[in-house]
Amino acid sequence: xxxxxxxxVVAEFDDGAKFTMGDFTRVYTVLSPAQQQLALHDRRxxxxxxxxxxxxxxxxxxxxxxxxxxxxxxxxHDRLQILSEAKIADALNQIVVEPxxxxxxxxxxKGKYAQVKVKAIYxxxxxxxxxxxxxxxxxxxxxAIRAGADFVKLVKENSDDDTSREKNGDFxxxxxxxxxxxxxxxxxxxxxxxEVTEPLQxxxxxxxxxxxxxxxxxxxxxxxxxxxxxxxxxxxxxxDKTNMETTVTIVNEAFVGR
Length: 258
Hints:
With 258 residues, the protein is α+β, with helices and mostly antiparallel strands. Among the domains are: 1-63, no CATH class; 111-216, Chitinase A, domain 3. It has eleven helices and six strands. The chain has helices at 21-29, 33-41, 43-62, 71-94, 99-108, 131-146, 151-158, 162-165, 182-188, 219-244, 253-256, and strands at residues 9-12, 18-20, 114-124, 170-175, 200-202, 205-216. The radius of gyration is 31 Å and the shape is elongated. The two termini are 56 Å apart.
């Protein structure tokens, strides 16, 4: 962006209007990212294009094209669209989320911020085992684990996941918000420390996951996340209320049909 003050005149158009750095900045903010890139890359061409559009628009107004359909209707539609979006943005900016609300949301929804460190045994489906055989093997291992067998020993002897097997089964720390299969998330977050899931099916095999440690992400890590959730929730509530309070009377039912 050129290092010029807002009141610096950067161009003058053929109707005598002056275009300042401030004008350019305001126009720039409403352009798409691709248009912004082009405007900065070739500012001379941008100014010419802007002057050209101004001239054509002025000619259209002089010819009263702006008062003719469908142009008049398109202008009104775009006006409504822009002002509607502007009001939604303004409402969002007006919403205040108090620190106490964030703390309360964290305490009441703390389960969402849980994280479970797990160990895994993976039984692959492939040339060695069919799907039914892999499930049977996983089920047999689970029975042995619940009978007191050493989980890590079973990892080393049976797991087909080379990476976690080399780390005694250490698999990952899973957060409730992670993008993982719902079956995985529900099974893992239903565990207590030391418990093992039922065999969890994946496209190429079955997992047995053991909860090693259950902790919670601290408030300091999720404060911004909660703030945005609360703000968006309040904005949605305002938008839904405004929508519900909007009424229209249908005068001719033939227009809307059934």
